[in-house]
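Input record (Table S2, row 367):
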Amino acid sequence: MRRHWQRAPLLARGAFPGFASPIEPAALFGLSARDDVESRLVARDNGRWTLRHGPFERLPSRRRPDWTLLVQGTDLHDDAMHALMTRFRFVPDARVDDLMVSFATDGGGVGPHVDQYDVFLLQARGTRRWRIAPPGDPTLVPGMPLKLLARFEPSEDWVLEPGDMLYLPPGWGHDGVAVGECMTFSIGFRAPSRLEFLTAFLAAAADAPGGPDPRFGDRGRRVDAHPGALPDDLARRLRDWAVGWRPSAAEVDRFVGCWLTEPKATVWFERSERGLDPARFARAAALDGLRLDRRSRMAWRGAGVFANGEAVDAPAPARRWLRRLADRRALTAAECSRALADDGLAAILHGWYDAGWLRLGETPAPR
Ligand code: SIN
Ligand code: CO
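Output record (succinic acid complex):
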């Protein structure tokens, strides 16, 4: 982290020794047919690039070269893929985006491009040649369906085998080309920009103003000889509102926790498969333990605890358990039997279980 994170690429040969992909191509194709999964198909035909968005009922033949299927958020749909993501928890959950999987036939790739985000490119199956270039001229090839760098002068050229992994900081040019059929996992991170954050913050403030919304008024206005001129009092009032907008630190902190734990747009939680009343839930948790559903996002900061876009109001003893749940994504059976003795916490966790945010059992049952 000290030497490479956000600073310099790192090629880690054998990062996952003896790596075997937890997902088969057929299962990936199945995901790409679902309408709650984001997928794209990129193909090159005589130098002409095409891009299509899923869901895909049919894909090109595996015998045809030069195409690639990209499936976003596989960690949300598959426990084994989610488990692989936990290997990257040396970076805070709030920075994690998703695990994208690409499947390519010989020659397939998405062309030379840059990403705004940190990424670990883990070779999962077959072989891929990566060429990378330091941040430079961002000019794109005009008129393309994808963002392709017009000038790409690679400084490194590597062939990755299963288990090899390449870390790239934001802004580094890269071009990965499949050598024979291959699969690559992109463990991607996210970082908000100021405008993204402020747009979301103001939208939330507009939804829940938390007080009266003052409106401009001009009682006592005189007849004006210049109806085309912007009235000074109106322009000044609006400027004062913009310049003087000072939300409290507590208000911003609460929003930050909610916003950063917001589930992905494609996520729907299913209510728990066997509805249990609070007492039976507490007994079952004390026997089996609890874990966050793989789609749940949770975080804590100071006295604040946040889950799936909501702030949790919990007194200090309950907060201790919730922090542990956020850090470990699970509570053991023994921990549950102590934690659920707290009625407030028991009610919170039962509500989460009921909503499908939380599951019984410390680890998912094997497939
Ligand atoms: C790929 O897996 O083909 C593309 C991944 C990336 O360049 O970010
Ligand atoms: Co990329």
